[in-house]
């Protein structure tokens, strides 16, 4: 009998490749969209249609009831499950500590998302500095350029950007903005050995110094217990008056109320956001803030990148089945 794996979300981009990938090595089952969490858990138990599953595939942006692999769901999984292959770089919807307790390994798809997410950050940066989103809203409203135009628009070239977190996405973004050129500063707990020499490192003892110089702060850290609201009121107020914040990471890494307040009182001149607290039911106050460029979490949403992410997640599962170990184990397992 072939080892069984379960796709908790339908494959959208790589169905034919997946068939080849698992041909003769795994029995692949797909959970139907309408399956509830309790039906899912029940079907994994002895006698259920998914009995004996050793690996699960899930999507970070799953539209179904299996979006959150929280402790309750993980504790209810049978002992046969040994690997969860998550599609997406962020895995804050998976309770990794609960997985560790149960001996379940978790993989994500980090490098696949770098270019598309960095490109999204670049769009938000340009739109925020040049007030392009506002201009588009004007023309669509029949106002041509509203009376406030050009408002606080600024050139991109020559400005200073501070990058919080120089992982794969932060590094790709640094390369893109360096082309203008912008002056590029970065902060992370440790200096990144492969960072280009034009990327200036500001360690934990020099964070305030970095913030004071930045025209733009762009956030590229994962959401964890340690990074929740890491960009808080104090940090925002340490930026220069008129600075811009760009966020393509997770809404929860910034104190949203503090960011809105700073935008309203002019401490921030603009923001560019792809991610929010409580997606998709985001705070409606965002809609009335003219200097906010808003996107509905589409950082990786290109068919090319989505296909790469899907395939990589499946390859991690395939490698686990064939060798006992997949790639892209999340940080907590390293
Ligand atoms: O948000 C997208 C991802 O985590 O890959």
Structural overview:
This protein is α/β, with parallel strands linked by helices. The chain has two domains: 4-88 and 303-333, 3-Layer(aba) Sandwich (Rossmann fold), CATH 3.40.50.720; 113-294, 3-Layer(aba) Sandwich (Rossmann fold), CATH 3.40.50.720. The chain contains eleven helices and twelve strands. Helix 1 runs parallel beside helix 11 (303-323) and helix 5 packs across helix 7. The model has no long low-confidence stretch (mean pLDDT 96). The structure holds glyoxylic acid. Glyoxylic acid (GLV) is lined by residues 60, 88-90, 113, 299-300.
Secondary structure elements and pairings:
Layout: E1 4-7, H1 15-22, E2 27-30, H2 37-44, E3 55-59, H3 71-75, E4 83-87, H4 96-101, E5 105-107, H5 114-130, H6 132-140, E6 160-164, H7 168-178, E7 183-187, E8 199-201, H8 207-213, E9 216-219, H9 233-238, E10 243-247, H10 256-264, E11 268-273, E12 292-294, H11 303-323
Parallel strand pairs: 1-2, 1-3, 3-4, 4-5, 6-7, 6-9, 7-8, 9-10, 10-11, 11-12
Bound molecules: glyoxylic acid.
Glyoxylic acid binds at residues 60, 88-90, 113, 299-300.
Domain D-isomer specific 2-hydroxyacid dehydrogenase catalytic: 60-324
GO molecular function, one term: hydroxypyruvate reductase [NAD(P)H] activity
Keywords: Oxidoreductase
